[in-house]
Amino acid sequence: MEECKMRGFPTQKQVERIKEMYPIGTVIELTADMDDPYAPIGKGVQGEVVGVDDAGTLHMKWQNGRSLGVVVGEDSFKVISKPDEQQMEHLNMEMGGMSI
Questions:
Q1: Which domains does the chain have, with CATH numbers?
Q2: Start and end of every DUF4314 domain (predicted)?
Q3: Predicted confidence (pLDDT) per residue in 80-89, tens digit
Q4: pTM for the complete prediction?
C-alpha cells in the first residue's frame, strides 16, 4: 500500500493525486480502528469511496452503514479493489459527465 504523509492540509496537487489513487468506487478495508468518539469503526470493516473533498478526505459508505471520512496519511487502510474503466465511465455519466 502506498502511503501519503502530509502535515496540515494537503496542497491542490496532493488532493488531485489522492483523487487519482482512490477514485469513486474504490473499496478499502481498515487495517486499524478509527477512534471517532461518535461513530468508531473497527479494523477489518470495508467501505466504498463515494467522493473526495478539497481537503483530500475520502468520503465513505461503510458496510456497517456509517459514513465516517478517511484521512489519507492518518487513517490506516488497504485497497481491496478499484473500479474498472467501464465502471468509471458509468459513474461519470451518472454525474452528468462531470469529472471527479
A1: 12-87 (2.30.30)
A2: 12-80
A3: 999 986 566 6
A4: 0.76
| Whether 66 contacts 59, CB under 8 Å | no
User: Which CA distances in Å does 51 have to 37, 54?
Assistant: 23, 10
E-strand stretches of the chain: 27-30, 46-52, 57-62, 70-71, 77-81
d(CA 45, CA 49): 13
Which amino acid is residue 61, in one-letter code? K
Q: What are the backbone dihedrals phi and psi of residue 77, each rounded to the nearest 5 degrees, phi first?
A: -155, 165
> Do 39 and 30 contact (CB within 8 A), yes or no?
no
Length of the chain: 100
What CA–CA distances, in Å, run from 35 to 26, 30, 74, 95? 22, 12, 12, 32
pLDDT at 22 over 60: yes
| Confidence grade of residue 39 (pLDDT, cut at 50, 70, 90) | confident
